[in-house]
Design brief:
The chain has about 270 residues and is α/β, with parallel strands linked by helices. It is built from 13 helices and 5 strands. A 5-stranded mixed β-sheet has the order 1-5-3-4-2.
């Protein structure tokens, strides 16, 4: 095979070291947590095909910037650690390295930023209190938005360090999530997008649009009247119909409230332009 257009790399610029002195290395608190699932996957890969040369990257303090999982597996197996030293790199660099890759999840970025940014620290604590909800759901409920799952639409804000989550937002979001978690089991029976149902319930609760105790009670009794969740307008109408059963006064029309809310937002945005 003919190899063309390949640049020679000077060994002095790319020196790979090896050691069994595991005590040399440190984990950086701002790096992502080492996932047991990832460690097991790396272990199985090494057992299957051997340790294909893939050095970890450390800075001059021997903090591991890339390769925490590989380091953990090799250390546990008593195997030598191959590494490259890149002086001067730190949290900003390893976050940037993973910004457009699939290596880091949104949760990894939250964990990393939470070591230096209070907004992320507060958001991380809320996530820990409500592990049954995705990052996208918590973010959407905080912002009064609706999501159907994925959360791609909020990931850039989080990945780029732009998340805003004040103390007051944390208090309000935690209170809302405490209420929304009452619907977790019901959501499994109703079907469709559970994330969207949580957002609908969170929106209703935060806006104080009805008697929330009655809402929970009625949905628990008549959940079969709510079709699988697909669109917020249809879901809010179904929730309204359930809430209004046997009510002569105090009836609610949540889908109409949503329309008025959207109209108000659009009007404000137009005036600001």
């Amino acid at each position: 095979m003919k190899i063309e257009n390949i640049k020679d790399v000077n060994e002095a610029d790319y020196k790979v070291y090896a050691t069994n002195n595991y005590g040399l290395f440190k984990f950086n608190a701002e790096n992502r947590e080492v996932s047991p699932k990832r460690v097991e996957a790396i272990k199985q890969s090494i057992e299957s095909v051997g340790d294909i040369r893939n050095p970890i990257i450390v800075n001059e303090k021997f903090e591991i910037m890339d390769g925490q999982g590989r380091f953990t597996v090799l250390k546990n197996a008593g195997m030598p650690i191959e590494f490259i030293v890149e002086p001067g790199i730190g949290a900003d660099e390893f976050r940037a390295l993973n910004m457009r890759q699939t290596n880091w999840t949104v949760k990894d970025f939250i964990h990393s930023y939470s070591k230096t940014k209070k907004d992320y620290e507060r958001f991380s604590k809320t996530m820990s209190e409500f592990p049954m909800f995705s990052v996208a759901v918590i973010y959407a409920i905080t912002e009064g938005l609706f999501c159907t799952g994925g959360g791609v639409w909020c990931s850039n804000t989080i990945r780029e360090g732009e998340l805003k989550f004040s103390k007051q937002q944390q208090i309000e979001t935690n209170e809302t999530m405490n209420y929304v978690k009452n619907y977790v089991d019901i959501s499994k029976i109703i079907g469709g997008s559970r994330s969207l149902l949580y957002c609908c319930i969170g929106w209703i609760y935060k806006k104080k649009l009805c008697d929330n105790k009655r809402l929970l009670s009625m949905i628990q009794k008549h959940f079969n009247r709510i079709p699988p969740v697909a669109r917020k307008e249809e879901t809010l109408k179904a929730i309204s119909d359930v809430y209004n059963l046997n009510l002569k006064t105090g009836r609610v029309y949540l889908n109409e409230t949503l329309d008025r809310d959207k109209f108000s937002r659009n009007k404000i945005e137009s005036e600001e332009k």
